[in-house]
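forwarding from the other thread:

> can someone predict this with NAP?

sure thing
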Amino acid sequence: MKNKRNVVLFIASSLDGYIATKDESLEWLFSVEGEGDNGFSEFYDTVDTVIMGKRTYDWIMNQDLKEFPYVNKDCYVFTRSVVEDTENVKFVRGDLPKLINELKNQEGKNIWLVGGGELLQTFLEEKLVDELIVTVAPAVLGKGIPLFREGDYQLNLSMKSVRTFNQFVEIQYEVKK
Ligand SMILES: NC(=O)c1ccc[n+]([C@@H]2O[C@H](COP(=O)([O-])OP(=O)(O)OC[C@H]3O[C@@H](n4cnc5c(N)ncnc54)[C@H](OP(=O)(O)O)[C@@H]3O)[C@@H](O)[C@H]2O)c1
């Protein structure tokens, strides 16, 4: 039987578990001194599909980038509204577990779950996440948008690796099934 491809959460968090301030600033993250691209391109090569929530997508589109950052990958954005697809993005609604399980059963590389916390909550409740790679920034925010929202889930993890990129600590976990 062929191996299913994994859904991997690859995300940066403050030490106290926030992925952005309440006003969606990532200044606390971008001001940290890392090393190289902090493992990003190495990870990026392992995926061919990118998934995110609509607020994360809107944040990216507000960044004044020259082009969409994930042009060479299949990109799905979850929303509960009707949004027209673009040349780079499919907007998806409806049966989230069905779509993700279909993707997992297709041939291909891994699937990057970009975030944010709201979409992650559904993925966790539906037991769709296989691996978590969290890069912890040396910052405590006190409040903000949480990585892990309160929800009906509990994960038992197996720690696979820890690496540092100067001030960042990257921890890789596999979800025990
Ligand atoms: N630190 C990092 O590495 C990192 C990574 C990713 C994101 N972020 C930050 O996180 C913030 C956004 O995170 P967030 O938790 O507020 O929002 P999010 O999860 O990115 O997006 C939430 C939106 O996604 C849609 N959605 C969520 N769950 C859904 C479901 N089960 N089915 C269908 N649609 C669903 C809804 O869109 P509609 O409202 O359109 O229905 C919802 O409003 C941004 O500021 C972003 O910059 C940081």
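The pocket of NAP is lined by residues 11-12, 19-20, 24, 26, 29, 52-56, 59, 78-81, 93, 96, 114-119, 122, 145 (CB under 6 Å). thats all i got for now
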